[in-house]
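Study this protein:
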Amino acid sequence: MMPLLGGRLLPMVSSVMLLGSAALLESSHRQLAAAPTVSAAPTAVADTKALTGYIRQWESPFTVAETVRRLRAGFQQQGFEIRAELNHQRTAREQGRRIPANTALLVSKPSLDAVVLAANPLANLFLPFTIAVWDQAGTTRIGYWNPKTDIAALLEIKQGEAAAALADLQEILADVIKETLP
């Protein structure tokens, strides 16, 4: 039976259990922090079979850095704002880890975003839109959620101005990538 405090049930947890749990967590944290880092960046493979139809992917003949630079310029030329550029490889390196080049470019076109957000506020889970650029076994890959299957279908935006905005977004994304890659 649990004791009551102000009409609420309180679980009985001994201070010994709490101290033991804290010691276990601290020990685990020390082991993880002391774990040797991989000497070379591992070759990661993006397995997207379960995401077929949701993820659009492209290959780039350029490095990740050059591809990101070209995409940034292409999106800005189309009136997009670059909200952030997240260099995951640099962040991993700062944590003592090594991963292949991997950058997320967060892009936003306020005129499209506003229409989609007005149709369903949960669209903020997908906006700003993320373009992933990563090295996969020596090949630079570009990937992003397909606005038609992801945002439109999952948020049930099937018609009207917001559906048209998502269709426009899909076309613009593909155009920017095609124009920035040879």
